[in-house]
Amino acid sequence: MPGPGHKWSRPAEEEEEEEDPVDALVARTGCAAQHHAVQECMAAQQDWRRCQAQVQAFRECMTQRQQQRAEELRRRQSSGSADR
Q1: Which of 33, 56, 70, 76 falls 20 to 30 Å from 26 in CA-CA distance?
Q2: CA-to-CA distance for 63 and 40, rounded, in angstroms?
Q3: How far is the C-alpha of 43 from the C-alpha of 52, rounded, in Å?
Q4: Distance CA 30, CA 38 (A)
Q5: Residues near 31 by beta carbon (within 8 Å), at least 6 away in sequence
Q6: Can you tell me the distance from the alpha carbon of 30 to that of 66, in angstroms, rounded to the nearest whole number?
Q7: Where is the composition biased (Acidic residues) (predicted)?
Q8: For residue 2, what are the contacts with CB-CB under 8 A and spacing of at least 6?
Q9: What is the pLDDT of residues 23-48, one digit of tens each?
Q10: Are 76 and 82 in contact, with CB atoms under 8 Å apart?
């Protein structure tokens, strides 16, 4: 049973108006296509174990993005630049 602060089911109109925060976060990483592939596989297969190829592709994309971001931050710190 959902807790008092969670809306586990929303009316369709409200769902269309609000952007999913997870989708927004993933879109900023550049891994949205891989994330959607995982979601589509899960919807079709109903078993995450059958979606390991999609999960692995998403994981690799996210890992690569995290490494790029960390390197970017290191470069900024070493150059003394605080602006983005």
Answers
A1: 76
A2: 21
A3: 14
A4: 15
A5: 58, 61, 62, 65
A6: 11
A7: 13-22
A8: 8
A9: 899 999 999 999 999 999 999 999 98
A10: yes
pTM of the predicted structure, to 2 decimals: 0.68
Taking the alpha carbons at both ends of the chain, their separation in whole angstroms is 43
pLDDT computed for residue 9 by the predictor: 58
Torsion of CA 45, 47, 52, 58, to 10 degrees: 80
3-state helix, strand, coil in the chain (%, to 5): 75, 0, 25
- Please check the confidence at residue 56 and state whether its pLDDT lies above 60: yes
Cα 69 to chain center, whole Å?
Answer: 15
Longest dimension (CA), the chain: 51
